[in-house]
Design a protein that fits this description.
There is one protein chain. The relative contact order is 0.13. The protein has helices at 89-102, 170-179; strands at residues 2-3, 14-15, 27-31, 37-42, 48-57, 66-71, 77-83, 108-117, 120-127, 130-137, 143-144, 150-153, 159-162. The chain has two helices and 13 strands. The chain is mainly beta and 181 residues long. The protein has a five-stranded antiparallel beta sheet with strand order 3-4-5-6-7, covered by helices on one side. Strands 8-9-10 form a three-stranded antiparallel beta sheet. The chain has two domains: 2-102, no CATH class; 108-179, no CATH class. It is 13% helix and 41% strand.
Length: 181
């Protein structure tokens, strides 16, 4: 069985470990009626605690399925998961869904225009979620990722991804290459 977080184009498929290699320590995750993710832990004395948690990937670009941190509302880490492959399927699915929601990133499928506005560039693009307009600083050039994708950060720190830029139409590609280092 292979699991993929489809909402992130940079995610690679992960192989699921056999059940005998899965972490079965005394914790589990569940979603409350209000939608919050809750970590239930049992200590060695039989006492159980339930803590609402948020999921954070420590290295989202280089290790998207490793070093997953479950943090309480104050940002204190409650559990570090070294590898998603090592946890049981129900908890893994909850974490993958949380990561997909947190890491929402529009994918640019076309570039209509990039105009110069004093110290900013005004981008008009088509994304997988519709047309977008955003501004980038002159000094913030689009960044090529190791896998060939291009990452763009706007002035609001929102991220846009261009998966496989060579698949863009000729005009979009021409506009993009002017701004790449």
């Amino acid at each position: 069985m292979t699991t993929v977080i489809e909402k992130n184009s940079f995610a690679e498929p992960i192989a699921v470990l056999p059940e005998d290699r899965v972490d079965k320590s005394n914790w589990n995750l569940f979603r409350r009626a209000d939608g919050r993710l809750v970590l239930r832990c049992e200590d060695g004395k039989g006492e159980t605690t339930e803590t609402p948690v948020q999921v954070a990937c420590c290295f989202p670009w280089s290790h998207p399925f490793e070093f997953i941190s479950l943090r309480d509302d104050k940002g204190h880490e409650q559990k570090l998961i070294p590898n998603l492959q090592q946890i049981a399927a129900p908890a893994r699915e909850l974490i993958e869904n949380e990561l997909a929601q947190r890491n929402f990133m529009p994918r640019i499928t076309g570039i209509e225009a990039i105009t110069d506005e004093i110290e900013l560039f005004h981008w008009k693009v088509i994304t997988n979620v519709g047309a977008r307009h955003f501004l980038t600083r002159r000094s913030d050039h689009p960044r090529k990722l190791v896998n060939g994708d291009v990452l763009i950060k706007d002035v609001s720190n929102d991220l846009y991804l261009i998966p496989n830029p060579k698949s863009l139409d000729a005009q979009s590609l021409k506009l993009l290459w002017v701004y790449l280092d």
